[in-house]
Amino acid sequence: AALVHPIEGKIENLVAKSWSLDESINDSGIGRLSVTFVKETTRPVPVAVEGNKESVVSNVEDLKKSFLENLAEKFNVDLSFVQSYEDALGKVTEAYDGGQAIADSAESFVDDAIGLATAPLAEFSLVISDLTATAASVIMAPAKLADGIRNAFSAVNNIFPTAASQFRALQTAFDFGDLDVDFDFTTPSGKQKKQNFDLINTAVKGIAMADAYGAAVNLEYVTVKDIEDVENIMQAQHEAIRNSDQTDPNIIGPLEDLHDVFFDFLRDTRVSTKKVITEDVDVYTPRTLAYALYHKEADTFYDSIAGLNNVDSYDLIQGQVQVLSS
């Protein structure tokens, strides 16, 4: 706590170790309170709370299942409508292309020193090639269409070497279908086309979001801002799907369940995640300052101190310096 001293002013990080009260009748009953304060010099390094990852992962699978079952149940092509088959085929192919777009964006989110996993990338290419080649055969078999979208996402998720690269790449599908060209959906054929497009759009966007939730529980949250950034991204996508007229009412329950358990996870993680604070320090390098603040954990934090202050790890820093704390 802080002690406001009549001469020294405000002194931070003090703890009262002992105290005594001395009363004397010779001094008209005046009592003298003596307190010994000790300055705390050891900064605790917070330990992250895991949160309920298993519950998030379970709800991820439940939401994906809901999207795919809804697609398999309600996707329908009436061949008596002109262009019905061609429209459906075009949208199915676009969905598979959406999986390819996630993979194509992946390289920009992966450290060159790590790279994408070669074998899974080759397997993904085969899966997408096969799905595209057989797209026409699933138009009249919605269950196979749902399986194809499931397989496309399963394959693409295997190519990422880190949760961070997976989380960022999946966001490229968050707006899938938003640029669809307007058409007349007041006619019977138009209504069917809209229903099929809505089913595929929400399935792709929803599964991408669900898998992003799954990746997010494995991200490294160094600061509270890291948590807030993920909160903002996932909340925005949740609301976009939740409030869309394309989203079937049957999806809302699983959608809300996953949202709630994930944000519970972030709440638990936030409890002990470090915050960025400003300290007034003498001359240090980020390495020596990290040792002074975190002792045995110094190697974990000196890069963060350097990054927060836009210096190299061996540069000298002093005065108002940003560091990580609980």
What does the model show?
By secondary structure, the chain is α+β, with helices and mostly antiparallel strands. About 55% of the residues lie in helices and about 15% in strands. It has 11 helices and 6 strands. It has helices at about 55-75, 85-105, 120-135, 135-140, 140-155, 165-170, 190-215, 225-240, 250-270, 285-295, 300-310, and strands at about 5, 10, 15-25, 30-40, 275-285, 315-325. The protein has a two-stranded antiparallel sheet. Strands 3-4 form a two-stranded antiparallel sheet. Helix 1 runs antiparallel to helix 9 (about 250-270). It starts with a strand and ends with a strand.
Write a compact overview of the structure shown:
It contains 11 helices and 6 strands. It is an alpha+beta fold.
Features of the shown structure:
326 residues; alpha+beta; two-stranded antiparallel ribbon; two-stranded antiparallel sheet; 11 helices
